[in-house]
Design goal:
Radius of gyration: 22 Å
Order of helices and strands: HHHHHHHHHHHHHHHHH
Helix content: over 70%
Oligomer: single chain
Number of domains: 1
């Protein structure tokens, strides 16, 4: 048999079908099968899938909810100003900020999709090369897109229905916060790389620091220096700088997962990254696009209704933070097992994730139903605003389980190299599953109907996405001649 140099070895033979990874990462001359730093094997290719999910989700939930708690802190402190226009301004601005955060999420998904299979297959040097290149590409892409969003922010606010003083306040908030998008995006990519190696705690710290900084600086800047909504934006900007520092420290110093950048490998990896990131970004901006439509549909009901929608937008990610975290942490688990060709474990990970999503939704709904009125009063919502918040907490919240199923499926499609599946499903949800339902709800019941229509429209797409994810794993495994059923044998490297 001809000698095969380990320096050019790839995880699977050249004759193996490429179905599971249509995006080819360029080979390098340094990729050898090695264990992680300190000799650890890939973390997720053995052991209890459920335990991996719960441990990663628990840490991820703390970190992710920290971001949303930071947003809640902004909202709570600003509500102390007793100015409904300020809360409405945050509501309008959030629709645009959600769009920018979705850019960062899409780029971090690409990082997970490339780095975690390399870790799972045992190619650490390749993982280091991919890590540095995805960080650099994330900064460049988010900088360009961030400039575009900043330039169009005033027009976007007008299209959302903001006017007068509310428009001006939202514009001030965005002018301060939007330029820090590249910092947040790179921090999110660092967290994705940390999750890819199974370091849940340090990935959590990247986002946890955001809440800590916000909670400390918000009262100082909003009230102490009397900066109002501008103070909230400054606090969030400083928090993003802190998150960047924590993330890069974990990747570079703790795990030594930042190789030296070189132009030719960078250009090749960028092509592979953008093949995943472009549809992932399109996927993730589908939700803010749908939310923007909901905001525009609620706007004719007045600032009170828009303020309620803004409050719900802060409550929802905190209440369902574990589900948001699960959708982010399941990618590395699937990615490592995909790299190790353990499709039986990939299928089991999907099944367990959906079950955990259902349980988390029921728990969150119970808490929201119990504390609906105190939540409304905490943000000084009265009249119609309070009614809308209570409606969501007690009646509409359980429908989030279908959104959670869609999130899980997104992670599956992106990690297995089929990000375009996510794009199609999410945009169908944002259009066919949003516009007619929201319009019908607005006609029948005003702002309450808008909220109900938005949640009901997602039911079918959650069911379809979950079924499609199982089908895709089975198809990939069958074409590779590997088992997809749990207990089907160990197909991975030993």
């Amino acid at each position: 048999m001809p000698h095969r140099d380990a320096s050019t070895e790839t995880p699977h033979s050249e004759s193996e079908p490429k179905l599971a990874a249509p995006v080819d990462v360029p080979p390098d001359t340094t990729s050898t099968r090695t264990r992680g730093r300190g000799g650890e094997p890939p973390k997720f290719v053995s052991g209890s899938i459920l335990r991996h999910i719960l441990v990663m989700t628990g840490a991820g939930a703390v970190g992710l909810m920290a971001i949303f708690i930071g947003d809640l802190a902004n909202m709570w402190f600003l509500s102390r100003l007793n100015d409904e226009a300020v809360i409405a301004a945050i509501g309008y601005a959030s629709s645009i900020l959600f769009f920018t955060i979705s850019i960062g999420i899409g780029l971090s998904i690409a990082a997970t999709s490339l780095v975690s299979p390399a870790i799972g297959a045992g190619y650490r040097m390749r993982a280091r090369r991919l890590s540095v290149n995805v960080h650099l590409a994330t900064f460049a892409v988010s900088l360009v897109l961030g400039i575009g969003v900043w330039a169009a922010s005033s027009w976007m606010l007008t299209k959302l229905g903001a006017a007068g003083r509310t428009h001006d306040l939202a514009g001030d908030y965005l002018d301060i916060l939007l330029p820090s998008l590249p910092l947040l995006a790179v921090a999110m990519t660092s967290a994705a790389v940390l999750r890819s190696v199974g370091d849940a705690r340090r990935a959590m710290n990247v986002t946890l620091i955001i809440a800590v900084v916000n909670v400390i600086l918000d009262p100082i800047l909003i009230f102490g220096l009397d900066l109002g909504i501008r103070g909230a934006a400054i606090a969030s900007t400083v928090a993003r700088v802190a998150a960047l520092a924590v993330g890069l420290y974990g990747v570079m110093k703790v795990h030594d997962l930042m190789g030296r950048p070189r132009l030719r490998p960078f250009l090749g990896d960028v092509r592979a990254m953008l093949a995943i990131a472009a549809p992932a970004i399109l996927t993730n901006i589908a939700t803010p696009a749908a939310n923007a439509y909901v905001t525009a549909a609620i706007a004719p009901s007045g600032d009170a209704a828009v303020a309620a929608w803004a409050i719900i937008g802060r409550i929802m990610p905190v209440a369902f933070g574990a589900i948001y975290a699960l959708s982010g942490t399941i990618g590395p688990i699937i990615g490592q097992n995909h790299g190790a060709r353990r499709y039986d474990r990939v299928r089991e990970a999907i099944r367990q994730s959906l079950a955990v999503t259902a349980v988390f939704t029921l728990l969150a709904w119970a808490l929201l139903a119990i504390f609906a009125e105190p939540l409304a009063s905490t943000f000084r919502a009265t009249g119609e605003a309070a009614e809308l918040v209570i409606l969501f907490c007690r009646t509409l919240a359980p429908l989030f389980v279908f959104m959670g199923a869609l999130f899980i499926a997104n992670a599956v499609f992106n990690t297995l190299g089929y990000a375009h599946y996510s794009t199609v499903l999410n945009w169908l949800r944002a259009t066919v599953g949003t516009v007619p339902f929201v319009d019908a709800g607005a006609t029948m019941a005003g702002a309450k109907g808008v909220l109900a229509g938005n949640m009901i429209g997602g039911v079918l797409f959650g069911i379809v996405a979950a079924g499609l994810s199982f089908w895709l794993v089975d198809r990939i495994a069958a074409q590779r001649g590997l088992p997809a059923a749990p207990g089907g044998g160990d197909a991975g490297p030993r």
